[in-house]
Amino acid sequence: MTTIDNEKLGALVGKMLGDLGGAFSVPTVRIGFRLGLFDALHRHGPLAVSDLAARTGLAQRYVREWAFAQAANGYIAYDADSERFSLSPEQAMVFAVKDSPVYLEGAFDLGAAMIEGQPKVEAAFRTGKGVAWGESCGCLFCAVGAFFRPGYVNSIVQAWLPALDGVLPKLQLGAKVADIGCGVGFSTLLMAEAFPASSFVGYDFHAPSIEEANAHAKAHGLAHRVRFETVPAKEIADRDFDLVTMFDCLHDMGDPRGCAKHVRKLLRPNGSWMIVEPIAADRAADNVGSPVSRLYYNASTMICVPTSLAQEVGEALGAQAGETKLTELLTAAGFTRVRRAAEGPFNMVLEARP
Ligand SMILES: C[S@@+](CC[C@H](N)C(=O)[O-])C[C@H]1O[C@@H](n2cnc3c(N)ncnc32)[C@H](O)[C@@H]1O
Questions:
Q1: What is the domain extent for residue 123?
Q2: I need a labelling partner for 9 at 20 to 30 A (CA). Which of 69, 181, 238, 258 fits?
Q3: What is the predicted pLDDT for the residue at 159?
Q4: Do both 75 and 121 map to the same domain?
Q5: 197 CA distance to ligand 1 centroid (A)?
Q6: Structural domain count of the chain
Q7: Are residues 117 and 32 in the same domain?
Q8: Could you read off the pLDDT of 224-263 as tens digits, one per residue?
């Protein structure tokens, strides 16, 4: 007979309450971002419900329920004496300050996109086939761009590029750079803004992402220096790049080994390839238990594995492949010097040299 350990059960149910609270908060938090409720509290708080409704032009009854939901979430503060709501400086970093490293609007969008994508991925579990990036839900690609942007804004130029061997002086003098799997182009544009003497091309096989990337380039006044092209990684025809970058996309490719071999051909003999991948331990058992790996394994199930399986080869590395496996792949493609150049809480940065 199975015996239930009530203490263990209590602990599990307690954890589930917290987890489900987070899951239930996804739609209300997204409403807060989209309708400017967090922004209004950040700019004008502390605010009573009537003032928050007036500032945002929204229906007061909804705003009241939303505000108590966010207070219950612990995402905004409520002062019972004055009956006003506000954002603490720390809450503002997560919900209002767009360039903060922990601004999480994109993370909530990604959660919603994964739920929207569930029927297609669920069907693919039965067939073993993939779900192509372009077939995923309406704005998976915007959500992914928004999810990674805060990390990129705070790391690419400040920490990751300087960690590469001799790359910074080249970028300052004028280098030719390819950003492969660039998505909506945030990484490409951040680099282009920082290094005006260099030229940048962003490549991605997903046409709507490239359209969005071109719109971002125009909006930032960078369209004359940054080009975006719709092309699969293995079909890039240009050559002689000083630097190739890949941000959170090598593991999404169907044939990452073929792509790595192709990158070898794109680079000048003394060029560098910066591969930014999700942080992970080598052994899956060592990832289980990490909250970051938890996010990545779930996203990998819903996005990364289906995307790779929809392409030729379908290696499906997954978002938690780990450094040893990635290094083996890069070495097999002809890169002789591979090392971990930097890391952050969400990413590891590998450098591969021919
Ligand atoms: C997780 S997203 C990352 C996008 C972007 N680098 C970022 O960090 O926001 C993965 C990207 O890889 C692109 N991708 C996947 N397989 C590809 C391939 N074989 N060739 C070119 N792009 C590919 C997808 O279209 C998508 O934009």
A1: 105-353
A2: 69
A3: 97
A4: no
A5: 26
A6: 2
A7: no
A8: 889 999 999 999 999 999 999 999 999 999 999 999 999 9
pLDDT at residue 135, as a whole number: 86
For residues 192 and 75, state if they share a domain.
no
CA distance 208 to 228: 11
Same domain, 219 and 318: yes
Cα 341 to ligand 1 centre (Å): 22
Mutate to test the pocket of ligand 1, among 249, 276, 302 (most ligand atoms within 8 A of CB): 249
CB 33 within 8 A of CB 110: no
149 lines ligand 1 (CB under 6 A): no
> 198 near 161, Cβ under 8 Å?
no
Tokens of 229: 């092209």
The low-confidence residues of the chain, meaning pLDDT below 50, are none
Q: What one-letter code names the amino acid at 334?
A: G
Cis peptide before 46 (omega within 30 of 0): yes
Q: What is the CA(181)–ligand 1 centre distance, in A?
A: 4
100, part of any domain: no
Q: Tell me if 243 is assigned to some domain.
A: yes
pTM, two decimals, is: 0.96
